[in-house]
Amino acid sequence: MVQTPKPLIAALRLWAKMAVIDGKVHPDERSLLEFLIQVHAPDTDIDYLLGSVRDIHMDDLIATVTTYEDRFFIAMNAYALATVDEDYSDRERRFFDRLSASFSLSEEDLDLLKQTVANEHSEDPQPPDPRLEDLFSRSNFCEAE
């Protein structure tokens, strides 16, 4: 059995925290989280994950993610979870702002991740920015696929 790397465990937990932060898990958030689980840790039970993260402190999870590239993709998917239901609540916004600040993401990369998420939902999607491939190739997410 392959053990899930700590940054990916932290990612799953941070994504789950984003999904529950506003007190409800929208069906679109659940679907996106199920997809992320399937890609990165298919043996993870979504209901257990969602129930287990309420009392886990964000700072404890953030501390286990040490590479900029992993931080970028965790933040990008957290943003996608927050906005997938088209209801970006104040709690989700505060959570994302705190997460991205704790991860010390550059303004350029914050713009990139927001543009990437918006592009996913566009009727006329643009080709991905080459920086995405560069960041991805150096992340633990590349190894997980």
Automatic annotation (TrEMBL):
CDD domains in the cross-refs: terB_like
Task: Show the Gene3D superfamilies listed in the entry.
Answer: TerB-like
Q: Which InterPro entries match?
A: TerB-like
Stated name of the protein: TerB family tellurite resistance protein
Which species is the source of this protein?
Sulfidibacter corallicola
